[in-house]
Amino acid sequence: MALLESDVPIREVVTTDPEKAKALENDVRAKILDMLAEVEMTIEGIHEELQRRGEEKAETTVRHHVNVLKDADMVELARLEEADGGTRKYYKSNTRVFSYDLPEGADETLAGMQATATGELESLVETLYEEHGNEIERVAREMKPCEYCETQHYEEFVLRELLNRALIDLSETERLDRLLTNGE
């Protein structure tokens, strides 16, 4: 006899590769990504901004965190500048991490919009599979780690990546900002 039995629905999905997940194990790295999302900074600048935000870290520790993010391909060298007989390196994030919580009551507020979005996404997924289903399935099969694994979750991952990349395209070309400001 079970002491507890509950239907537990999926409420969130996090998609990332294992190297990026490992890089985000430390909350300071998420802060660094946030700082570097808008402006390029040197290690010294990152160190100062972290201190301003209440993070007391040695500059060598900051350098280590930036290197971990670089190794995970989440931060890139943006430019080099001659300074004081040496070279100053500026870093910039190529990854945006949203780690927010919705306010209490947002689920009820968003429910109608979620229903609209679900219907639109269903139509979009149908269109994607009609026009590109073979390519999606091929990529999913290439991801499949063993012959016994199902590809269904890999196909879902590919779809989520497509949608995420499309949102990034809208954001990077400032079309998303225009759409969001037109709604105000």
TrEMBL record:
Highest taxon, organism lineage: Archaea
Chain ranges passing through the membrane: none
Span of domain HTH arsR-type: 19-106
InterPro entries: ArsR-like_HTH, HTH_ArsR_DNA-bd_dom, WH-like_DNA-bd_sf, WH_DNA-bd_sf
Family annotation (SUPFAM superfamilies): Winged helix' DNA-binding domain
CDD domains in the record: HTH_ARSR
Protein name: Winged helix-turn-helix domain-containing protein
